[in-house]
Write a structure and sequence with these properties.
The protein is of the alpha+beta class. It has 3 domains: about 180 residues, Rossmann fold; about 190 residues, Immunoglobulin-like (Sandwich); about 140 residues, no CATH class. It has 13 helices and 20 strands. The strands form 5 sheets. The protein has a 5-stranded parallel sheet with strand order 2-1-3-4-5, sandwiched between helices. A 5-stranded antiparallel sheet has the order 15-16-13-19-20, with no helix packed on it. Strands 7-6-12-17 form a 4-stranded antiparallel sheet, with no helix packed on it. Strand 15 and strand 16 form a beta hairpin. Helix 1 runs parallel beside helix 7, helix 8 packs antiparallel against helix 10 and helix 9 packs across helix 10. The longest helix has about 30 residues. The two termini are about 45 Å apart.
Length: about 525
């Protein structure tokens, strides 16, 4: 019956004074292959430069040995006695180079130092000193756990136990990984609107804001047409007190406490509306700002702390109605312009939303996710410009920060399950007199605006050289479900390609999942 046997190449690396140990290792590995190795379906293949290298030119001896069989080996057994060996270009000896390179490449190293008795006449003191110094370095650098032996029998027992334990644990670990991979699969997914995608999706909120801007523009055009359709009939003022038309201004009724002047719609206000019309190819007509004989009445004895307005209007109903519509139009144009500027702020900013997906068959809990990506083009939300003063309260009241930059909650994607960081919008206000309305300062609204986004920060952030590291925590994730990350990532500029590395660990799977998600090439 055929079997799938895993073959491991093990290199024996040692100076020339280690001789009898080589024969012991040969015997131990042969015994392993016919006993434990047979049951584990593992076979060990021992290699040594004396039997597995060939004469070659074109480089330093150690470099050629590395290329022939050492670099491709799965693990290495290193033994030091009383000799360090011959130095190489960069290392204390060939054995030291092979060992340190194996460690740097995350390969298993079995390291041993011989303390067997040796005749003093057979010891090279300088070589012995180098071995002692190297042993101290290994301890100080904390790069390996080594063992010592006092006799050849001691060495045989130690190497036999080490090989058996290592491969028994390796097989067990491999079986756990295979079992896990069959039942569980945690990964990251991109979010495209409310749907999942295997790639990162680059979104842009300007597209969503453009819909708002388009609706605002349509409302302005309708309002402009309404104002243009208002007909102002010129009225001749008559001083005859016998005429009592409500549409006629009667100067004799103006009290000395009031000051009456012709109403003047400011040039700056006209300019705001006119510029909007010109930019959108709208014809206002020559009488668009004409308000007939509309007058402004100023109460010269008005006391501001009593509330109300110091000014009032007097004129025909059509004149007063048109004036109010013009004021409304100006306010709407200013809001429209703020929406355009807000959209322009994010026109060159990519918005990325991610989800954690469990495509496996087991429930996952206490999940830690670490994201790692280049800091190139990455920007913090706090580094963007806030909305203008005419719309910032509307943005806050409608919770557009959550809508645009927060989590996704749809049929296929659950909302983030972390603890809430929501900042209360309740503000302590100073007592105000009746008739007055509290209007928050723009600076206060800006602070509230950025606080709204800060409340979405359910992660820890670190900087590591040219990389940004973000750490998230998810309470749980059922089988075949997805959960949104709490906030979107922002990247400025044109991105030809973006890669986000990630690591995932859960209570049910302590083994780290390492992968990456990218934009579609």
């Amino acid at each position: 019956m055929s079997k799938n046997v895993t073959l491991y190449d093990i290199v024996l690396s040692c100076p020339t004074d280690i001789d009898e140990e080589k024969n012991i290792i040969d015997n131990v590995i042969n015994e392993f292959n016919t006993t434990i190795g047979e049951s584990l379906e593992i076979r060990l293949n021992l290699k040594h430069w004396s039997t597995d290298s060939y004469a070659q030119s074109g480089g330093a001896a150690q470099d050629l040995l590395n290329k022939q069989f050492i670099d491709s080996a799965d693990m290495i057994i290193c033994i030091f006695g009383n000799r360090m060996g011959t130095p190489t270009k960069l290392y204390d000896s060939g054995t030291a180079e092979e060992m340190l390179k194996a460690i740097n490449n995350d390969k298993q190293v079995f390291l041993y130092f011989s303390d067997t008795p040796v005749s003093p006449s057979d010891i090279d003191l300088e070589q012995r000193k180098q071995v002692t110094s190297f042993r101290t370095k290994v301890e100080e650098m904390e790069i390996a756990l080594y063992k010592t032996y006092n006799s050849l029998d001691d060495f045989k027992a130690i190497i036999t136990k080490d090989l058996n334990l290592f491969f028994l644990q390796l097989k067990t670990f491999s079986q756990e990984i295979n079992k896990y991979s069959e039942t569980s699969n945690l990964c990251l997914s991109g979010i495209d609107e409310s749907n999942l995608n295997q790639h990162i999706i680059l979104d842009n909120i300007s597209k969503k804001l453009n819909k708002i801007i388009s609706d605002k523009k349509d409302d302005l055009i309708i309002l402009i047409d309404e104002i243009k359709n208002i007909v102002i009939v010129p009225i001749i003022e008559i001083d005859d007190p016998k005429i009592h038309s409500s549409s006629i201004i009667k100067p004799e009724m103006t009290f000395t406490s009031s000051k009456v002047t012709p109403y003047m719609y400011s040039k700056s206000s006209q300019s705001i509306i006119t510029n909007f019309a010109q930019n959108n190819n709208l014809d206002l007509g020559k009488d668009f700002f004409s308000l007939g004989n509309l007058k402004t009445i100023e109460n010269v004895f008005h006391v501001s702390i009593m509330g109300g307005s110091r000014y009032s209007l007097k004129g025909a109903d059509e004149e007063i109605h048109k004036q109010k519509l013009l004021e409304k139009l100006q306010t709407k144009v200013l809001k429209y312009l703020d929406w355009v500027n807000y959209s322009n702020e994010f026109e060159n900013i990519n918005l990325i939303k991610l989800a954690l997906s469990n495509t496996g068959n087991i429930f996952q809990s206490d999940i830690s996710v670490k994201l790692k990506f280049l800091n190139t083009n990455f920007i913090e939300f706090k580094d963007t410009n806030p909305p203008g003063k005419h719309i910032i309260k509307e943005v806050i009241d409608n919770e557009l920060i959550d809508v645009f930059f927060g989590e996704t909650n749809s049929v296929n994607i659950n909302a983030y399950d972390g603890q809430t960081n929501k900042i209360s919008n309740i503000q302590v206000q100073q007592p105000i007199l009746p008739g007055y309305q509290y209007i928050p300062e723009y600076t206060d609204l800006v602070e509230e605006y950025f606080d709204s986004h800060e409340s979405l920060h359910f992660y820890e952030k670190f900087e590591q050289g040219q990389y940004i590291i973000q750490k998230y925590h998810f309470k749980e994730l059922k089988q075949h479900t997805n959960i949104s990350f709490p906030t979107a990532l922002l990247f400025r500029g044109k991105l030809n390609f973006l890669e986000i590395e990630y690591e995932i660990i859960s209570k049910e799977n302590p083994h780290k999942i390492e992968s990456k998600i990218t934009t579609k090439k």
